[in-house]
Design brief:
heterodimer, A: alpha+beta, six-stranded antiparallel beta sheet, 25 helices, disordered N terminus, disordered C terminus, B: alpha+beta, 3 domains, five-stranded antiparallel beta sheet, 7 helices, 17 strands, elongated
Chain lengths: 676, 330
């Protein structure tokens, strides 16, 4: 008898089939082809068992399969990474458990692992739509548990209850989400093994052009006060100081600082002066770079403020990351330049680009003052026939010579390289900075979106008394690119739309659809800001808005109130509390009439039948005779006659009407009595 | 060891007293907050461990959605407490007269169950006995028979009925211990004994007080009479009917004579329980043969009579022999 109860019903089996697909399908991106194949076979076998076509596999076969796939996975684990191996192991164990399931206990194990796999899916996918999808999967997973206890009913009520429980649990879950504090990571965790996107730590001719083909979002920024104009939006990400004649790379001193970066490190003090506050939601790039305007500083303990005035995340950005930044536009970067830094930023490879070198020397003799010299170099780009193009012509080994003096056509990296080279050749410390320029403003949600195709490279030169100063040769050749953004200068069809046939950015040309795109983007923005980026600061702010000054007592009362209130609603919903009147409406109507008559001095005796009472009342108050007799007739019929549902409904309506008329008559009878 | 068992029994006793005060015995009980207990199951504890695991997982990855999932599962646990309570609250239990039983048989206690709202997967059992699962209980009253293994005769109180449910997710166990005040009479285990009957016969012949001959044997066939509608079809003389003599009823006659007395022997070699068992068998045999008999026990004498009521009276006397009759119907 005990054994029989523990068997899994057919309803549970059907739900298990559904849940298998529902839990595993969102993880397909993380699974190796082998794991996918084994999961597929397991599912087909499970389907076969359900349809009664095949028997359960013997236990040893399942064990051999499990051991075999686990050992192969461990062999390839160095290639696919720790977390991917773990996910694959779990999915395989999960899929195999389905075909060797015998008891209810096995179902419970499968459900718990199912929840864990859903959590694993969130590591990679975090959009609102995915969160909704996975909440649905959570519901199905819960329904499996319910079906264990609903042996006799079909799949539908069990699933309905599963979803109902999840929905009813959401309010308290939201409360806990808002109230419970967030902790810093407890230990370092393995990361998913996926390709990086966005800027790279080395730049050669042609690197940034690749990014202009990408319609992906890089990050979003929300300004607390006034939004700077497009021409001021120079988002610094990487500073490149070393040049080998072809490629610009980061200086080794900075690289070693980056490599040693730990949680809570900080390499510079917060600047003083007027600041501009904003927050940024960085999209996952699998890299450490963060973005900030000019001299940017962040108090976030995950962020390291680098000595070259950049922001650096101690761990790679694997999921949307929200951080608050302050920028100090008036602050001087490096008022005095240490000697080693100066040397690094003056270094050029031996005998590289001799013609450019000569040109630089001419500038040096004509303009002895560094500031004027830089202005003159910039003016050259403007006055001579230079072209700004996404498809620059090929260059030889002396890259800058070929570009600057022969082709005279190039992209931002070409111009930035040439200017840095010339500045260094004339003894002005200079470096290349890469990042993003500009941003698309979303009017409804009030934020700036920066896409990968807005990637840009420019120059910083060090001038006495001014520190590092930004100069952008692109602004000389194509001022529209800087002032109005990338789209003002380039045709999207030839750049970022070329390789992205399905990007919503294509809707820009249709005003109505573009509004829709912006609204959807706003939803995603709020989701990123309030859910994915909800950190301790946001928590404090929200609680302050909700409760005023936060005291532990207030917080505890708030939590108890919400849990209590939700509990009451659930209890009411499932029928624990009922506010229904103890009497049915028919009896209630009759007793109301009796009460009214009692006030006129005609109380109904306890043993008196409705008909007798009616006759007695009619004798004393003849005006009530006819409405009361009609009412009593309907009442007794409803109360004591067996009636069809239809007739009952009909009579109830009649009773309601007669009740109203009778009440009116009783009220009138009083006035009549008075008149008499 | 001895001390711990002693302590345990004292704790048990205290618990039983506490239960008796909180949930007094009654023929009819509706479960409400006072009578329902809830605690997490082992699975519920594992569930909470999963919540903690997910929270750590989400914290390490600084992933709010994983943390959110952990909170959702925690909240589901909270919701389930309400659902679990609701699955027992309002169930109405009524003790019903139970079928007759002999010692050594599995006793079945009849209990009527109904609930205002449908309630699922209830497990009902007496301590250390097989569990009965009620898949669904709803407004239509249903009867269930809860088994109890028993070897004793007399009034048997089954103890407190345990009602238990893990619905809807198996996270919490809700239960209650009900005393439905449903002790039932258990007759001694019948022991077949032709010899005993014969000896009894001889004894009655020898005995001076119990004079009067009594033939023990089959009922005698008396004759046929016209069938009257309503008479048992068993008595119809089908042979005659087949011969075309019309529908006739066989008539039997009980030989009239002095009544037979059943009594305990003075023979001390037989232990009292065996004797009671044998007497039980005799009572059943004689009753089946519709004979008139009386029963004489040490402190109780039941005058000769026949019929079902008489049989029950005799069997009850045998069942409660040497015991204090503890209330209930006799």
């Amino acid at each position: 008898m005990k054994m029989q109860q523990e068997l899994i019903t057919r309803n549970s089996q059907l739900l298990l089939l559904i849940v298998n697909i529902a839990v595993l399908s969102p993880l397909y991106g993380e699974m190796t082809p082998w794991s996918l194949a084994i999961c597929g076979i397991c599912f087909l076998w499970q389907l076969g068992i359900y349809l009664g076509k095949v028997a359960k596999p013997p236990k040893y076969l399942v064990t051999i399969l499990a051991l075999g796939s686990a050992s192969t996975l461990i062999l390839v684990s160095s290639q696919i990474g720790m977390l991917d191996t773990l996910i694959n192991l779990l999915t395989l164990g999960y899929a195999l458990k389905f075909i060797e399931m015998r008891q209810r206990r096995d179902v419970r194990v499968v459900v718990l692992v199912g929840y864990f796999l859903i959590a694993m899916t969130f590591v990679e996918k975090q959009s609102l739509w995915f969160a909704l999808h996975l909440t649905f999967v959570t519901g199905i997973n819960t329904a499996v548990l319910v079906s264990l206890y609903r042996a006799n009913s079909s799949v539908k009520p069990a699933s309905k209850l599963g979803f109902k429980i999840i929905l009813q649990s959401i309010p308290v879950a939201i409360l806990l989400f808002i109230v419970l504090p967030r902790l810093p990571p407890i230990w370092m965790v393995p990361k998913l093994n996926t390709a990086t996107t966005g800027l790279s730590d080395q730049v050669a001719f042609g690197n940034i052009e690749e990014l202009t083909r990408s319609a992906k979002l890089a990050f979003r920024a929300t300004f607390t006060d006034q939004r700077p104009s497009n021409a001021e939006l120079y988002w610094r990400a990487i500073v490149l100081e070393n040049y080998d004649g072809a490629t610009w790379t980061q200086d080794t001193s900075i690289q070693s600082l980056q490599d040693a970066a730990m949680y809570g490190n900080n390499y510079r003090k917060a600047p003083q002066g007027d600041s501009l506050s904003y927050s940024i939601i960085a999209e996952p790039s699998k890299q450490h770079w963060l973005y900030g305007l000019d001299v940017a500083y962040s108090d976030n303990s995950q962020i390291i403020n680098m000595p070259d005035y950049r922001l650096y995340n101690f761990q790679s950005v694997d999921q949307k990351f929200q951080y608050a930044v302050r920028s100090y536009p008036a602050f001087k970067m490096d008022a005095s330049l240490p000697k080693p830094v100066r040397q690094t930023n003056l270094a050029l490879p031996e005998s590289s680009n001799p013609r450019t070198w000569q040109l630089a020397q001419q500038f040096k003799t004509s303009y002895p003052k560094p500031a004027e010299r830089i202005d003159a170099m910039m003016a050259m780009f403007n006055q001579q026939q230079y072209f700004y193009t996404l498809r620059p012509p090929a260059v030889g080994p002396q890259q800058i010579d070929d570009f600057l003096l022969e082709n005279k056509a190039g992209f931002c990296v070409h111009y930035a390289s040439a200017l840095t080279f010339m500045a260094r050749a004339t003894g002005i410390p200079a470096r290349m900075v890469t990042g993003y320029q500009g941003g698309e403003y979303n009017r409804s949600a009030g934020y700036v979106s920066v896409y990968q195709y807005m990637a840009h490279a420019w120059v910083e030169v060090w001038l006495q008394d001014k520190g590092w100063v930004r100069v952008d040769p692109t602004a000389m050749i194509a001022p529209e690119r800087v002032e109005d953004g990338f789209d003002a200068f380039f045709n999207p069809q030839e750049s970022y739309l070329l390789d992205s046939p399905f990007t919503p950015l294509r809707l820009r040309q249709f005003p109505l659809l573009d509004n829709l795109r912006m609204s959807l983007a706003s939803i995603d923005y709020y989701w990123s800001k309030w859910v994915l980026g909800f950190d301790n600061d946001a928590q404090q702010q929200l609680l302050k808005d909700l409760l005023g000054n936060i005291t532990p007592v207030k917080l505890a009362l708030f939590i108890l109130a919400v849990i209590g209130f939700t509990g009451l609603i659930i209890a009411y919903n499932i029928g624990l509390i009922n506010f229904t009147r103890s009497k049915d409406p028919v009896t209630q109507r009759y007793s109301q009439i009796c009460n009214m008559l009692q006030k006129r001095g005609l109380p109904r005796q306890t043993s008196e039948a409705p008909n007798q009472y009616m006759q007695r009342v009619a004798q004393t108050m003849p005006s009530l005779a006819s409405p009361l007799s009609e009412f009593t007739q309907t009442y007794t019929a409803l109360k004591y006659k067996p009636l069809s549902a239809n007739a009952r409904k009909h009579l109830s309506q009649r009773l309601k009407k007669q009740h109203r008329l009778l009440k009116l008559a009783i009220v009138k009878s009083k006035s009549v009595a008075k008149n008499d | 060891m001895a001390i711990t068992t002693n302590k345990q029994s004292r704790l048990n006793q205290w618990f039983r007293h506490w239960l008796a005060r909180r949930l007094p015995a009654s023929k009819s009980i509706t479960l409400a907050h006072k009578s329902i207990f809830i605690l997490p199951t082992g699975f519920g504890v594992i569930w909470l461990m999963l919540v903690v695991l997910l929270f750590i997982f989400g914290t390490n990855y600084q992933n709010n959605l994983i943390i959110g999932l952990a909170f959702l599962l925690l909240s589901v646990f909270n919701t389930c407490i309400i659902y679990s309570y609701r699955n027992l609250a309002g169930i109405h239990f009524t003790a019903k007269p139970s079928p007759q039983n002999y010692a050594g048989e599995k006793l079945l206690y009849a209990i009527e169950v109904s609930a205002k709202y449908p309630q699922f997967d209830l497990q009902v059992n007496y301590p250390e006995n097989t569990t009965v699962t009620l898949a669904e209980v709803n407004a239509t009253t249903m009867q269930t028979l809860v088994p109890l293994a028993n070897e004793k005769r007399g009034y048997v109180h089954p103890g407190r009925l345990k009602v238990c449910s893990r619905y809807p997710l198996g996270l919490c166990r809700t239960w209650s211990h009900l005393d439905l005040d449903n002790q039932q009479i258990v007759f001694p285990k019948p022991i077949k004994t032709e010899a005993s009957l014969r000896a009894l016969d001889e004894q009655s012949q020898q005995s001076e007080q119990l004079q009067g001959k009594q033939i023990i044997g089959v009922d005698e066939y008396h004759g046929l009479k016209e069938y009257v509608v309503g008479e048992s079809l068993r008595q119809v003389a089908w042979k005659q009917w087949a011969q075309g003599k019309g529908m006739l009823t066989k008539q039997f006659q009980q030989p009239q004579g002095a009544p037979l007395w059943l009594a305990l022997t003075t023979d001390t070699s037989k232990d009292i329980e065996t004797q009671l068992g044998e007497l039980t068998w005799c009572v059943d045999q004689l009753s089946r043969k519709k004979q008139t008999f009386g029963l004489k026990l040490t402190a109780q004498t039941i005058n000769p009579d026949s019929g079902e009521n008489h049989r029950l009276r005799c069997l009850t006397a045998l069942a409660t022999y040497g015991q204090q009759s503890s209330g209930g119907a006799s």
